[in-house]
Structures are given as structure tokens and as C-alpha cells.
Specification:
A hairpin with a 5-residue loop joins strand 5 and strand 6. 48% of the residues lie in helices and 18% in strands. Strands 1, 2, 3, 4, 5 and 6 form a 6-stranded mixed sheet that branches. It has 2 domains: 132 residues, Lambda Exonuclease, Chain A (Alpha-Beta Complex); 68 residues. It is α/β, with parallel strands linked by helices and 256 residues long. It starts with 12 loop residues before the first strand and ends with a helix. Helix 1 runs antiparallel to helix 2, helix 2 crosses helix 8 and helix 7 crosses helix 8.
């Protein structure tokens, strides 16, 4: 049984998998995100989001014929992605390029083992106190001979998938009362896969990190300078990098 640490009453917080992994990388960037400060949208993030919508469409409605693929992409964009399309100001030729990129990813996706999928883009929300909520959107949930398997699709490199998977495992365990048998990250682009078997020990460690996150961010609401900033590759996309000595230094090294 997973027991989440007791959280004192404070500022309401909604903690997503993205906020959790951002905080592990740089608490200062996580604080900025909670305060509504985000970096600009990018073509890569737009392409990845569209690919995920197409993957979900495949798993819920069946394979998409080649002749229908461009229309399917435009329908998905129209349903939920128009604001991001507008912020990127993509020309028609650039949008066709994005659709072609997503088409190549979709071909790879169809070659994956997709049997046993029971839910797609599963929204899981758990209140761990009166003012702190954990939430995540799990790309796919599969029935596996070992039990429930949670899968997160990646359209690029796997990167730090382990931390995100640990968050999803804890979230599932808190909602269901039982940890998933397996959590897996799969890169559609490269074919790389990473999986692990969650345990009570790993779930407890993740819960403790979330407890620390809540304390750090709440302290930052009163005193932003109390929240540490850490330089690294993520500084390329950080919205506060220009006002951050660590970010400036990291970007200097990354661009050398």
C-alpha cells in the first residue's frame, strides 16, 4: 500500500508529470511554469503533439488509409491544436512538411505490437490532499501477461523517461490501489524502448520527491530567490533563461 506523505495546508497546486520532471531538472523553471511563464511553441512540439493525436486515433478508430492521412491530420489539428498552429505561423508548405514527418512516424508506429490496448490517452487525477492534485495523461494502457502495462510514446529520443514513468506508476497506484506491472517508454522515431517494474520503494521515493516539489514551489511563491536554478540542456527551451546566470552559462557551453 502506497502512503503519500502528509502535506501541510498551503497554496493550491496541480502537479503534472511535466511539472514533476521539470522540477527535477530545474526547480526555477518549474516555478516559472506554475506562474504561467512558458517558452514559445516549437515546430517539434507541434509535430509531436499531432503524432500523438494520430496514434490515439489509430488505437480507437483503426488504421488510417494513406489517402486519408492528410485529412485526418487536419481534422485533429482543427479539433484541438488550432491555437498552437496559429502561434507558430506555419505556411501551408511547412504544414505539409509537418504532416509528412508525422506520416513517417505513423508508419513506424503501425509496426509496433499494439494488441491488448484497453485505454488511450487516459486522464488520471488523484487528490493527495485538500489542495494538491496529481494529474497525468497516459498515452496507452495495455493488458499484458504480466498485468497492466502503461506506455508512453516518444516521437524523439527517450531522454529522461524514467522519471516520467515513475510519476505515472505512482499516479496509477494511488488511483487503483495497486501499482502497474510494467511501465514503458517507446520511441517511435528510433525504436528504442525502456521499461521497468514499479515497486513500493520506487513509488514511495517518487511520492517523497513530489512532497519536496510542493514545499519548494510554495516557498517560491513568497520568495522566488529561494528556489534554486540549475543549468543544463533544458535551458535551450527555458522561458527565464535570459534572466538566469545558470542558464546563460549553460547556453554558452551548449553553443560552444
Amino acid at each position: 500500500m502506497i502512503e503519500f506523505p502528509h502535506l501541510p495546508i498551503g497554496e493550491p497546486l496541480s502537479v503534472s508529470a511535466t511539472l514533476y520532471t521539470t522540477h527535477l531538472r530545474c526547480p526555477g523553471q518549474a516555478l516559472a511554469n506554475v506562474q504561467g511563464i512558458y517558452g514559445p511553441d516549437s515546430r517539434a512540439s507541434f509535430s509531436g503533439m499531432l503524432a500523438h493525436r494520430i496514434f490515439a486515433r489509430h488505437l480507437t478508430a483503426g488504421p488510417i488509409a494513406e489517402d486519408d492521412f492528410a485529412l485526418a491530420c487536419r481534422e485533429e489539428i482543427g479539433q484541438s491544436m488550432n491555437p498552437k498552429l496559429g502561434s507558430l505561423h506555419l505556411r501551408p508548405s511547412e504544414l505539409r512538411g509537418v504532416i509528412a514527418e508525422v506520416g513517417a512516424l505513423y508508419e513506424r508506429f503501425q509496426a509496433a505490437a499494439l494488441e491488448g490496448c484497453r485505454r488511450v490517452e487516459a486522464e488520471v487525477v488523484v487528490a493527495v490532499s485538500s489542495d494538491v492534485t496529481l494529474r497525468g495523461r497516459i498515452d496507452a494502457i495495455f493488458d499484458d501477461p504480466r498485468g497492466v502495462r502503461l506506455v508512453d510514446w516518444k516521437t524523439g529520443a527517450l531522454g529522461g523517461a524514467q522519471d516520467q514513468l515513475s510519476f505515472y506508476a505512482l499516479l496509477w497506484g494511488l488511483e487503483q490501489g495497486r501499482l502497474p506491472a510494467v511501465v514503458e517508454a517507446a520511441s517511435v522515431a528510433s525504436g528504442e524502448r525502456y521499461e521497468e517494474t514499479p515497486t513500493d520503494a520506487t513509488a514511495t521515493a517518487t511520492a517523497r520527491r513530489i512532497f519536496d516539489l510542493v514545499g519548494t514551489l510554495r516557498a517560491g511563491f513568497a520568495d522566488a530567490d529561494s528556489v534554486p536554478r540549475v543549468g543544463g540542456p533544458g535551458c535551450r527551451y527555458c522561458p527565464i533563461r535570459e534572466d538566469c546566470d545558470e542558464g546563460v552559462a549553460a547556453l554558452r557551453v551548449l553553443s560552444a
